[in-house]
Amino acid sequence: LYRIGRRNNVSWDEAHFGKFGAYYLNRTFYHDVHPPLAKMLVGLSELLGGHNGTFRFKGGETYPAYVNYTFMRVFNAWFGIALTPLAYLTCRQLRMPAAYAAMAALFVTLDNAICVMSRFILLDAPLLAFTALALAMLARFHRARGQPFGGEWWRRLLLTGLALGLVASAKWVGLFAVALVGGYTIVELYEMYCSPRMTLGVYARHWAARIVGLIVVPLCVYALCFKIHFAVLDRYHSSASFMPVGFQTRLRGSPLAHQPYEIHTGSAVRLQGSHPGAGYLHSHTHNYPAGSGGQQITGYGYADPNNIWNIQRRAAAGSFASAAEVSPTEPAIDGAIGAGDVVVLHHNATKSFLYTDQGHEAPASREFREVSAVGEDSTEAQTRGVLWVVEIVGAERSMRDGGLHPLGTPLRLRSAGGGCLLLSTGTRLDKNWGWGQAEIACDARGDAGSGSRYLWTVERHINAKLPVANLGRMMGSSFLRNFGVLNRQMWLTNNALIPDHDKHNVLESGPASWPFMVYPMRMVGWDDAGIKYLEIGNPLLWWGSAAACLVFPAQLLFWLLAWRRRALRWQPGRLREYLDGALILWGGWALHYLPFFLMGRVTYLHHYLPALYFGVLFLAYQIHHLSAWYLGPRTARSTLIAATVLVAAAFWWFSPLTYGWNKPIRELRGMEWVSTWPVYEDKLAL
Known about the structure:
Blueprint: H1 14-26, H2 37-48, H3 69-81, H4 83-93, H5 98-109, H6 112-117, H7 124-143, H8 151-170, H9 175-194, H10 200-232, H11 245-249, E1 258-260, E2 267-273, E3 280-287, E4 295-300, E5 308-315, E6 342-347, E7 352-361, E8 369-375, E9 388-392, E10 411-415, E11 421-428, E12 438-443, E13 456-462, E14 468-470, H12 479-495, E15 521-522, E16 534-535, H13 539-564, H14 572-593, H15 609-630, H16 633-659
Antiparallel strand pairs: 1-14, 2-5, 2-13, 3-4, 4-8, 4-12, 5-6, 6-7, 6-9, 7-8, 8-12, 9-10, 11-12, 15-16
Helix pairs in contact: 1-2, 2-3, 3-7, 4-5, 4-7, 5-15, 5-16, 7-8, 8-10, 9-10, 9-14, 13-15, 14-15, 15-16
């Protein structure tokens, strides 16, 4: 809390999360890659601090007088403060003496990175607090394993599930805590299965209890957070475009709720793909680099004039035996368009028609055929490649009259020339010529037609000649569907956050460098007069915990060999007690760290903080046990004191960069212990 309001500018990711918190105050829907709980807590801090939701949190901007940013930061800091008692509780539950548990809690308190990340309006402090809570509840449940199905046992089990729901609802990194508890539970149930004293009925009760406590309860907490999220954010924003149209029409101010009901020849429509990431049917003046070399047809995820198509009926359903008989030169037929009609889609911005040619493969997915746009005066525009048959699939109950309507009548478009179906393939085009937009193609395979990638919805309908209807009353909306769609979109958006190797970003870092703190991160500008903060950890804790965690597998291997040679003279109960705690803490570190090597998304140093929490507790755990095994009482006590004093001294040494340095950085000497640290100059600057 020391000088927490000193910098009165929007700092680092406060620009994102402060803005998201403000959305809860003005009740405007938004989209982000993280679950809503931590951001709702940011919104709560803004509400309690008297913010009215109008400040936009632009990066570097000075906070106005009506934004109590200091209160918001203090609110967030209490989650970081909670780590200290939770660390102590966890270590006590793992049977560490009070002195060593206090040392572990001080280790957590005296890490500069955890401290500085808890001092701003960010999601990291709530994530760390809920992670620490989940670990503490697991440790308490572990201690109660000898009295199953008692009142205290049930309380600890359900509190563990509650904590898992909270941490998963803060950030998806919290799923690693869920994996830790899941792994612990699998081992526990396996040992029960192997016990000859365990009856089948009691074993089944253990399974049922854990399904309720560790699966049902977390899922209910997670779903409840989204239920509140949807209930509060009831004002329309364009970022809701990927949500089901029934959800969108219920948002206040939604432009989709009031549109002409019947779609006629001459109507302007915007077609949205139902497949995740499909976006809107789109065209622009750029051509394919291969194939026909024609004008591109893509899926674009944002509202744009190039998404607008004019739909014209060329033949009514029932007026022809086969779509192949319809001539593309037939004049447009006035009136409402319905299922079975043959239509053309005219791209207004480029004066071209949607067209497919069976002679060319799709640019990225070779099993499909290319779709392009051809000029209205071209030879191709006189062929059946521009004709499409409307097939309505799964219309809303109130719209099952055979007509094509906005929002509620999903449709397929089948080429009258070749019989293929228009689809979003799920593949992204090359960013150098296709701008990374979604690939749109035509599927001529015999089994084509099932699945969301073939479905399109008229999301926007414009026709000044037709009366406007309230479509919101006709559209159904389901929480489970909205919940599923939003989580799916969060997954897709998160996976799209990939590093651009053609661009230079000094903030990014790889997981291999994190335990050794190779690249601390500047959180703000580095001018002489500004207040400077560096995300740098306590080197003794980072390096010490990294060494302890990396050496532990070798320690286990050494003990296994010693046990095989009958050289390990430990009492079985004492060894098991040590391993239970060690594997929980080390497993938490491994599960929160190693998966980042498999991720393709951009990564930053603060992604290591949950793993660091486990690593620091494991370091204290190892100091305790190694001292108990190999040192006398006086030497062990001296080791405890020396370790705590050294860690405190290192924290104090780097504290100017934790609490903010407002003088020229060269006046702060002795901060660059490693040559790659960007204290005095940015080592990665171009």
